[in-house]
Amino acid sequence: MRKFAAEKSKNLLAHRKICAVSLQHPTASVFSSQSHHNPLPQSSILLRFLSSAASNPSAPSESMASDYSSTPIKIDSINPKVLECEYAVRGEIVNLAQKLQEDLKVNPDSHPFDEIIYCNIGNPQSLGQQPITFFREVLALCDHPAILDKGETQGIFSADSIERAFQILDQIPGRATGAYSHSQGIKGLRDTICSGIEARDGFPADPNDIFLTDGASPAVHMMMQLLIRSENDGILCPIPQYPLYSASIALHGGSLVPYYLDEATGWGLEVSDVKKQLETARSKGIDVRALVVINPGNPTGQVLAESNQQQIVDFCKNEGLVLLADEVYQENIYAPDKQFHSFKKVARSMGYGEKDISLVSFQSVSKGYYGECGKRGGYMEVTGFAPEIREQMYKLASVNLCSNISGQILASLVMSPPKVGDESYESYTAERDGILSSLARRAKTLEDALNSLEGVTCNRAEGAMYLFPRISLPNKAIEAAKFVKTAPDAFYARRLLNATGVVVVPGSGFGQVPGTWHFRCTILPQEDRISAIVSRLTDFHKAFMDEYRD
Amino acid sequence: MRKFAAEKSKNLLAHRKICAVSLQHPTASVFSSQSHHNPLPQSSILLRFLSSAASNPSAPSESMASDYSSTPIKIDSINPKVLECEYAVRGEIVNLAQKLQEDLKVNPDSHPFDEIIYCNIGNPQSLGQQPITFFREVLALCDHPAILDKGETQGIFSADSIERAFQILDQIPGRATGAYSHSQGIKGLRDTICSGIEARDGFPADPNDIFLTDGASPAVHMMMQLLIRSENDGILCPIPQYPLYSASIALHGGSLVPYYLDEATGWGLEVSDVKKQLETARSKGIDVRALVVINPGNPTGQVLAESNQQQIVDFCKNEGLVLLADEVYQENIYAPDKQFHSFKKVARSMGYGEKDISLVSFQSVSKGYYGECGKRGGYMEVTGFAPEIREQMYKLASVNLCSNISGQILASLVMSPPKVGDESYESYTAERDGILSSLARRAKTLEDALNSLEGVTCNRAEGAMYLFPRISLPNKAIEAAKFVKTAPDAFYARRLLNATGVVVVPGSGFGQVPGTWHFRCTILPQEDRISAIVSRLTDFHKAFMDEYRD
């Protein structure tokens, strides 16, 4: 039986008292990132990677402090919002993994495994996924247009990549791929993206609504910067959440207002629960400004049903909230009975127009089947903001001049891939479908393997790139974790890494119902590696449970 | 005779009273970006593009407000720091230029010129500068490594570009140019950059000190985010300054503490003046945390003498200030009697080691002779910060995952261009020297032309990409500007644009001694366009002075 979310979060905070050295805000449901300007990280009540309390790299040691005693900046004199921000996806566990990797380089026999497998982050190409050929052909030609006219080029590039490169160059003033663009991105590329959005949704899209960005992260930061004035401003975020949101809210000095996804119903989003959390926050004087929805979910992998999305749209409309829709996994759908619907399509289908609801959709070239994380391309589509607000967004974009042009080009390509009849069409679809079907198989294999482990339950990954299994840890393991001042799931993840070389992120980095423990594991290792991972994980888990079984 | 800087800034603020609707902080020398949380932009006392008071795009009109009345976010409910931030380089004058350009598209005879010439921003390739071939060859090959082994590739790429691409791919784990990298950037590329720094300075550089970033702007933001806790934290900035600094300080809620460059001595930096400004700020309770130095200067073009740099280093050391050295124009030196010295080299030459002084050097691929603005590559070299502070910087970098890989590769290339004996060496040096010598000629031609105009004096551009002439405007012109509620130099720039199509940025966007008027004009239009610009500018100026002469 599910508890009410408000009660859950009270429990969560109560639990956190155990882990945090000094907890300043024992409020029920609002995580303020400011902690009344208390400068030390231990006093933060933000979602954090609890294990860091044990070996916090930001805690000054005597020797360090004395070495740099004549430099002006001390740990207690930097911006406390920076101290309070946490980002578990690249937290302590990854530092340990990098250390182990260095060990293996020096001595391949130094650990009971021969390689580190990074399942901590959605970074497909780091695990061997190959880029989509057509996209890379076009990027290379736009980088070096001087070869476009050469005979040799036709021998090594597809005809449609050459044609597309010419089209794109024609859209760039002066064909200058090395010039700053319009602050929102090259207009012609935004036109292309809008055509893609229109084809996806069946509703018009306006290039003036598109802000091209270096991946989705800067777009999220820009919206937080715009919306957050002080710790009295709140942003509703799912728990578990992708820690970019908690980090960005902390850095901008706002308050994260959590709402819980229901693990028992496949990480369902219950609008009545969200409303309760909203009301609790409001009763504490928090001005809740926006609702973050991640669909498909990260780290949870659920794909929202359209009817649920309609409820969310109505809720935001009725409560005067900006809907921040993280839709970066829109191409990553594995469950045959599930389909991605953009929130804009849902809102427009309900009859809500531009002036009825404020909606931001985030998209990225890092995810999808293309997984071009290193290219740092992405965009946000911004609708339902008055022109004077849009001017402020434009100004913010201008202060950073523009996003990188290769990323801009790639963002346009993923929204307008080869079409039937294009030379690359067949190879493109083969590459795309090969990746997506393999990801679906990998998700299923890992899910089944996890569900077969003692005390582990794992919802299916309907979409996105992750599994987020729940592990019922024996009391002895929880005590052992407490003894080393580490969250139990971080303790588990660290033991897993040390035993197998497999890197996962503890659930405490994403937030979870108090007393439950999880980890996030990507489904991204190449298919021929999956069985090895399953057997390493199974052996480790069995041994761990044997060691700590009550 | 120069006045004291403190008095100057008092005058500046007094002057601003005329232009700003309600001035909150009549303090002598500190520009707070917070204005006690007064949300309306008119109350800001930050450096701003004064003309925007007349037609502020962020001022809500009746019709706009009513159209979006049912959306939740209003102009007076967004983050006031965003409202107060200004960025003149892409301000109102550029919006007007874009409008005129649209007019010309529809009707080529709609204005007394046939094209807009953007001299407002350091964006070389937008004005026809060609990229360096070798750099683009390597980027294209890294984008599409599948062609590296093809026979045709040798026909259209230089041998050393192919070799370099192989080298770079070998430095990237899994050769994955589409993967997120280490948060500070790919280690092998940081090694290459350090070799370049060592060759430049003659002192060791550590790859752990390098943070690769999407251009220099995000690096500046990261340092401001780290250093600024509240409006009581101040950053010393030159006036005139590049408005990224005032914008970033405003967005992070700090106070800009101005120090004046002396136009009469070629924009000299007098450390005794900086010290006075520091003391004035401190006497008002401002905790001054860092000194920004832009060398070569933007918008002022001066190249600091080594002895002056030594004084600055000692000043920062003695006063406990972080030295933020904007060195993005380090390759752009035109005066034969001037030479670039990095602040790190100067500090190390003086015997100051890693633990003696906190120093950050910003570098970018956008500037130099390569001018690759659209690639968004750059780095900062961070020295003299304790490990626990560095951990916080690493965390900030991690929240945004990494900078774009093409930009990272390019940042390594500009620090390690072809060497004697490489196939590309001759063509590379010809391209580089052609650009730099042409820029030097353009700077001189424009400087001479400006100095020949009535009431205009212009210091030479010893480096960087700009001229910043002073214009003595007739009282009648100043009155006319007041009448339309515009700063006199913005009035002049607008008239210049409307008459000639040449876009410059008014000096008020950078800051200037009160009662003086300037504009910033890049030296970047291609050489065959310079004489046309000179004649348009000369004709306009003559007519303007004839119209307004007292």
Explain this structure to me?
The structure is a homodimer of 550-residue chains. With 550 residues, chain A is α/β, with parallel strands linked by helices. The first copy, chain A, has helices at residues 5-19, 62-67, 80-84, 92-106, 133-143, 151-156, 159-171, 187-201, 216-227, 243-251, 271-283, 306-319, 343-349, 387-399, 405-414, 425-451, 475-483, 488-500, 527-548, and strands at residues 31-32, 117-118, 210-213, 233-239, 255-260, 287-294, 322-326, 359-364, 378-383, 456-457, 466-467, 470-471, 502-503, 505-506, 519-522. In chain A, the strands form 4 sheets. The first copy, chain A, has an 8-stranded mixed beta sheet with strand order 1-5-4-6-7-8-9-3, with helices on both faces. A 3-stranded antiparallel beta sheet of chain A has the order 11-15-14, with helices on one face. In chain A, helix 9 (216-227) packs across helix 10 (243-251), helix 16 (425-451) packs parallel to helix 19 (527-548) and helix 18 packs across helix 19. Chain A starts with a helix and ends with a helix. Chains A and B meet through helix 2, helix 3, helix 5, helix 6 and helix 9 of A and helix 2, helix 3, helix 5, helix 6 and helix 9 of B.
